[in-house]
Write a structure and sequence with these properties.
elongated, 406 residues, three-stranded antiparallel beta sheet
């Protein structure tokens, strides 16, 4: 979301937002130097809440709620999104106290607009009101652009947000980036909505797992567990995604389901009570095993009995998932390279025979250094060739299963 602040030295209203690579700032308008600071701060706070409410309609779209029947969550989300057209009027002509009473809107977006309007009414500066109205249009337009998959300009802040749905335009853009580099690139984090990027990454992880499974003989859902024996990896979440895909879920459904679950947890909701009950039963069993293995005078360590409500970081679930899926693709390569029989012909060999004269100590030392350099060079060449070979196989496999993303 965009945050609004007051520069007390320059008497300016400033807006800042994140881009995935850093924050940007812009000057909105000058502020009256003699205005009460409390009123100016109320204005800035109301605009920040307005932005937060507007971007929540993006991260929690009605399309992800299932039903649009009256009084359902989807219906409420749709009603909130429809208030975009009423924001300008609320800012320009807000609800004001009358007879000691104040009408408060049920809509967080509209109420934030009314609060900003009341602060502007107290300041009574027409030029300031005009600038704030233009700013609200800019912010709402950014949300609308992000909904269409266009993350340029102010809409770029969407790359920092976790959304319950994924734009087909953004999924296609992420798929193109992964086709160029199946191991992932910085552009996935700076240019693409993370939920959409994770949907595409799930498709490419499935392709990578298939390639690793073909080479190693392990099941595709188990390759990351095997890779973790070679190199420490965050294998739990990508393995869960592979299991969901193996069970028939699409990359879209697998990813958005995990992100939605984490967002509900972040909102203080319990989306799956039955699943939690199973986790608690498993935890009870683990505690029983623990107490049987240790003497009575030892206390149970809370670290050994922790219970995670979601496999993702609820503060940034989509980006966390994207990072884990890319780590999973890397893990598939780690396992594949253990079985990849590359042609050593072009990796460099030392065919020169010994000199007629025997080498002295200095020559032996130089030869050792030379051999070490050759070994490092061969290792680097082998690594590069292995990654290129793996990427080629993954591209072919991903293309063969392109229908997964449709």
């Amino acid at each position: 979301m965009t945050r609004y602040s007051v520069d007390p030295n320059r008497h300016e209203l400033i807006a800042t937002w994140g881009t995935g690579e850093g924050d940007l700032a812009t000057r909105i308008t000058a502020l009256p130097a003699d205005a009460p600071s409390a009123t100016l701060l109320r204005l800035a706070g109301a605009l920040t809440r307005l932005s937060e409410a507007a971007w929540r309609t993006y991260t929690h779209p009605a399309s992800a709620a299932g039903s649009l029947e009256p009084d359902t969550e989807g219906w409420r989300r749709e009603q909130e999104r429809d208030t975009f057209s009423d924001v300008a009027e609320a800012v320009a002509a807000p609800n004001l106290p009358h007879g000691g009473l104040l009408t408060v809107s049920y809509s967080p977006l509209l109420e934030s607009a009314h609060q900003a309007g009341r602060a502007l009414h107290a300041l009574d500066e027409p030029e300031l009101t005009k600038a704030v109205l233009a700013e609200t249009v800019t912010e709402l337009t950014a949300v609308e652009s992000a909904e269409l998959g266009n993350l340029t300009g102010r809409a770029q802040q969407a790359v920092l947000l976790s959304r319950e749905d994924a734009s087909p335009v953004q999924v296609a853009a992420a798929d193109h980036l992964l086709e160029q580099n199946p191991f992932g690139s910085l552009a996935l984090f700076s240019d693409i909505d993370p939920t959409a990027a994770a949907v595409a990454a799930a498709h490419w992880l499935a392709a990578a797992a298939e390639v690793a499974a073909d080479a190693s003989g392990h099941d595709a859902t188990a390759v990351l567990l095997e890779a973790d024996n070679i190199e420490d990896l965050p294998h739990q979440t990508p393995t869960l995604v592979l299991e969901l895909l193996d069970a028939g879920h699409t990359p879209h459904d697998a990813v958005t389901g995990l992100v939605r679950h984490a967002l509900h947890i972040a909102d203080g909701l319990l989306p799956d009570p039955a699943g939690l009950r199973e986790q608690l039963e498993d935890l009870d069993g683990a505690l029983d095993d623990y107490t049987e293995d240790y003497t009575d005078d030892e206390e149970t360590d809370p670290e050994d009995t922790g219970l995670r409500l979601t496999p993702l970081d609820p503060r940034r679930p989509a980006r966390d998932l994207l990072e884990d899926l890319l780590a999973g693709i890397h893990g598939c390569w780690v396992l594949h390279t253990e079985y990849d029989d590359l042609d050593e012909e072009h990796l460099g060999t030392d065919d020169e025979g010994p000199d007629d004269a025997g080498p002295d100590d200095a020559d032996l030392h130089d030869a050792d250094l030379h051999d070490a350099d050759l070994d490092d060079e061969r290792a680097a060449q082998h690594r590069h060739q292995s990654r290129e070979n793996f990427a080629r196989l993954v591209r072919a496999t991903a293309a063969r299963h392109r229908d997964r993303l449709l």
